[in-house]
Amino acid sequence: MNLPATEELFREDSTLLHCEAVVLAQEEGGGLILDRTVAYPLGGGQAGDAGEIRAGSLSWRFSDTRKSKLHPGAILHLIEGEGPTPETRVTVAIDAPRREAHRRFHTATHLLCALLPYPVDGCSITETTARLDFHTDEAFDKAAIESGLRRLVAEARPVRQRWISEDELDANPGLVRSMSVQPPRGLGRVRVIEVEGVDLQPCGGTHVNNTAEIGALVVTKIEKKSAKTRRVVLGFAQVGAAGSGLSPA
């Protein structure tokens, strides 16, 4: 059975938290495929969304969102047991705090790329941490990185998404920072994220609209993973109990 690609509403507006959809199929293992969704599937280092699918008085919790390997372009909402039957009209609602954390952390990694201009050979973005692995043997200064992040967040720089042609990307190969993941090809265009005056690179993830929305960050770890790899892990910061300082959230 050939299924159409899932319409990815999150690509154009990552603030959308729910949408109406129609069930197309359910793969073995619990992957429910809809004609459209606001749920981002695991990819580009960013974790997938979780949430709930509702049909009338019935509801199904989905614990993760993935790309289908059987149906190119289709997105799986991972549920337990049997889901709604094909052609059922449903509402998809994602976990707002999880999405917000992903948006804030993903944009923060773009700021980190601007502060540390080295090739990236690893990335992970979850609800609680963001990690980038940089291909370099240079030592990193934790205080300098945190200071740079505070400055860029406080500058409240606009964050925009736009599309460029594959020819434009080929003419500017330096836009691609990742050593292991290349932008998808074959569509004739590539989505890029621009942090005004700071960073521009291909990216399919979800982001905030302004760096001020990221909030306070801390560098929780700087680690030497190999002779040529330095890992930086970020966390959100919060005012301590006594209101006297910042601590990891």
UniProtKB/TrEMBL annotation:
One of its GO terms (biological process) is alanyl-tRNA aminoacylation. It holds the Pfam family tRNA_SAD. Its cofactor is Zn(2+). The keyword Ligase applies. GO terms for molecular function: alanine-tRNA ligase activity; aminoacyl-tRNA deacylase activity; ATP binding; metal ion binding; nucleic acid binding. Its EC number is 3.1.1.-, 6.1.1.7. It comes from the Bacteria. GO terms for cellular component: cytoplasm. SMART domains: tRNA_SAD. Residues 1-232 form the Alanyl-transfer RNA synthetases family profile domain. It is found in: Cytoplasm. Keywords: Aminoacyl-tRNA synthetase, Hydrolase, Ligase, Metal-binding, Zinc. PROSITE patterns: AA_TRNA_LIGASE_II_ALA. This is Alanyl-tRNA synthetase/misacylated tRNA(Ala) deacylase. It comes from Inhella inkyongensis.
